[in-house]
Design brief:
- By secondary structure, the chain is an alpha/beta fold.
- It folds into 2 domains: 62 residues, Ubiquitin-like (UB roll) (Roll), CATH 3.10.20; 108 residues, no CATH class.
- The protein has 4 helices and 8 strands; from the N terminus they run E-E-H-E-E-E-E-H-E-E-H-H.
- A 4-stranded mixed β-sheet has the order 3-1-2-8, with helices on one face. It has a 4-stranded mixed β-sheet with strand order 4-6-5-7.
- A hairpin with a 6-residue loop joins strand 5 and strand 6.
């Protein structure tokens, strides 16, 4: 897999939440060996997502040293990592900066995921800055070899995994909805019972029959 990532900006007509169409420009990353291949690859990738016409407005080399997808995450963050080295002769500390694109759900999680990505680093490092990236999606290079196929499938599976929080929220919403429906049904039943008029029962009049008593002789 190539280590060169290209940021490609795509302009197209997008439907917003209100249903209205408007022109928007979004950045995407592709892994390629040249500008020409990056243009070809982004055209191919975006054709699968955008049925309408779109335009590539800019292509440039991205300054990401590594891309790290993480499961159950749906946002991308740019992490600045300062690698620390010590000059044995002068005894002074030297720093060199690299940038990682980390998938996470928030800044704190991005910080934790950056540490996970750097766990095999031999030297010391610090993470002086993390910011959410406007990158919408990442498309790694696929050479067509079987070994690469497994890597791509794993990469995409991690990248596209749904956050567990969202799944839990959906389950909780469904449970609450079912409870509310059950309560409303019971209330309607109770109201119907209370509103039923008790039928009027006409009491039969008792007929009094006079009884004659014989007078004593």
């Amino acid at each position: 897999m190539s280590a060169t990532w290209y940021e490609c900006k795509i302009k197209y007509r997008k439907i917003d939440e209100s249903g209205a169409q408007k022109m928007t420009t979004e950045p995407y990353l592709v892994d390629a060996i040249s500008y020409t291949e990056a243009e070809s690859r982004i055209n191919e990738e975006m054709s699968a997502y955008i049925s309408d016409e779109f335009k590539i407005t800019n292509i440039k080399v991205a300054n990401f040293a590594e891309i790290h997808p993480f499961e159950n995450s749906d946002r991308w963050f740019k992490s600045k990592v300062s690698l620390i080295a010590y000059d044995e002769e002068s005894g002074k500390e030297r720093k060199s900066n690299i940038y990682l694109l980390i998938q996470a759900n928030d800044v704190k999680e991005a910080f934790d995921n950056t540490n996970v990505a750097m766990k095999n680093t031999m030297g010391d490092y610090t993470i002086p800055a993390i910011a959410e990236s406007p990158i919408m999606d990442v498309f790694p290079y696929f050479s067509g070899e079987e070994e690469d196929l497994g890597k791509i499938e794993r990469f995409n599976a991690i990248k596209n995994s749904v956050p567990e929080v969202e799944e839990k929220v959906v389950e909780e919403v469904n449970e609450v909805t079912e409870e509310l429906v059950a309560e409303e049904t019971q209330e309607e039943t109770d109201e119907a019972i209370e509103s039923e008029e008790t039928p009027f029962i006409e009491e039969e009049e008792t007929e009094f029959v006079p009884v004659a008593f014989d007078e004593e002789e």
